[in-house]
Amino acid sequence: MDVTQTMPAALTAGPAQYSEGTRNGDAVISSDFETFLKMLTAQMENQDPMNPIESSDYAVQLATFSGVEQQVRTNDLLDGLGTKLGLMGLSDIAGWVGMEARVAAPVLFDQTPVTLVPAPATGADETRLVVKNADGAIVENKIIPTSTDPIEWAGVDESGTPFPRGVYTFELVSSGNGRHLSTDAVQAYSKITESQNADGKLWLILESGQKIAADTVSAIREP
């Protein structure tokens, strides 16, 4: 039986068409294809001449190998595409520098009001804003409306004297029926001073010096 007459043309091609490439994926594909051909040849040589293997079986084996080959090449393509998208993303968020990002992170207070966006816990009937300075000391602890509406934090004490210029953090303590429900960081608007691409992620540097992942930003606005 002339097997080459019934086998797909790809099986009769020499392995030279699959030369080793410069990438690891190409080298693996080349090596695996040579092994695949050796196994296929051994299978053909040792088949039962009274019950030869159907050409369709060879086609199935080739299709299986081709599927693996394409998956390896696809993975390599996606890796390269991911790097390119990362660079494109950095180019996009470069325009954010100088704008204000809404994020749960420490804020530099320069004695101008800071916009806060509280998010009360479900079932809360009382919310309390807790403000801490850079040393972690509480400088303000007051009840605020139980709402998701933005509020302006003036940054002044009970006598109306502004707090010192510095970095402050904001927490929202939610209570319901007299019971503590949660304590959560409050999102605030903070100026962006720099954008970075590091470790495969996009990062933003805030005016406070805080480094945050770009995907944690929930809103952007003009200062």
Automatic annotation (TrEMBL):
<protein>
    <recommendedName>
        <fullName>Basal-body rod modification protein FlgD</fullName>
    </recommendedName>
</protein>
<dbReference type="Pfam" id="PF03963">
    <property type="entry name" value="FlgD"/>
</dbReference>
<feature type="domain" description="FlgD/Vpr Ig-like">
    <location>
        <begin position="110"/>
        <end position="175"/>
    </location>
</feature>
<keyword id="KW-1005">Bacterial flagellum biogenesis</keyword>
<dbReference type="InterPro" id="IPR005648">
    <property type="entry name" value="FlgD"/>
</dbReference>
<dbReference type="Pfam" id="PF13860">
    <property type="entry name" value="FlgD_ig"/>
</dbReference>
<comment type="function">
    <text>Required for flagellar hook formation. May act as a scaffolding protein.</text>
</comment>
<feature type="region of interest" description="Disordered">
    <location>
        <begin position="1"/>
        <end position="24"/>
    </location>
</feature>
<comment type="similarity">
    <text>Belongs to the FlgD family.</text>
</comment>
<dbReference type="InterPro" id="IPR025965">
    <property type="entry name" value="FlgD/Vpr_Ig-like"/>
</dbReference>
